[in-house]
Amino acid sequence: MGEEFESGSVWLVGAGPGDPELLTRKAERLVRSATVVFHDALVSTGVLDLVPSHVRLESVGKRAGRHSIDQASIDKLLVQAALTGEKVVRLKGGDPAIFARSGEEVAACRAAGIIVRICPGITAASAAAASLEMSLTLRGLARKLVFVTAHSQAAEPLTLDWSSLTGPDTTLAVYMGKTAADEVVRRLIVAGLPGTTPVALVENVSLPEERQILTRLSRLPLAMRTITLSGPAIILVGEAVGQG
Ligand code: SAH
Measured from the CB, is residue 18 less than 6 Å from ligand 1? Predict the structure, then answer.
């Protein structure tokens, strides 16, 4: 609550899914009182517009397939800025605690003796459920919620234990699953999930360009081929999808 933003400290801040209204008041306060903001490619322009012009804004975006800046370099940038006495915000899409490499950044700051704190954000799965007007959990029907990333190390196969991820009472939220969608679908079906299981893919959740595909598991690959997806997309799988 209202923590100080000391010079020489770092805040990892969740920017939410894109709609600036889905930013927390705390996140807004922190970006306004920072001296420098390092942000991801995922952070929307609407959110970046809230950063005052006197605050230095630096993009450290990593995009799948396009290698711009590696994690160790980002860790170093945060540490160096804090050591020179800046108030550092590391602004991340969604929630900093979900598939956002926060662990490395926290560890790097701590190793350098820098105070580091985290401000949560609304994660893509929550925002997608809201857009779809559905609940991720449903009494008796969806008792388990699994967040998984389908992103693997370059050219390596996905090494997830799919049978442990799926079950009739599970809602699965697949992050970074666009490229690997065909394989995800195939593996889920091999793991025993019926091809008729409801699926939603939501691209650019909460932004004006948002698009949704609502279909069944076995039909997702074909449905995805009918449109060009250029933004980030999350895939939700399970009986809760489409049940309102
Ligand atoms: N920390 C983020 C996740 C980062 S991983 C969070 O909590 O949401 C990046 C993945 O998140 C994307 O590949 C996509 O699967 C999902 N994602 C993030 N923002 C999204 C958006 N606006 N619409 C759809 N998916 C999104």
Answer: yes
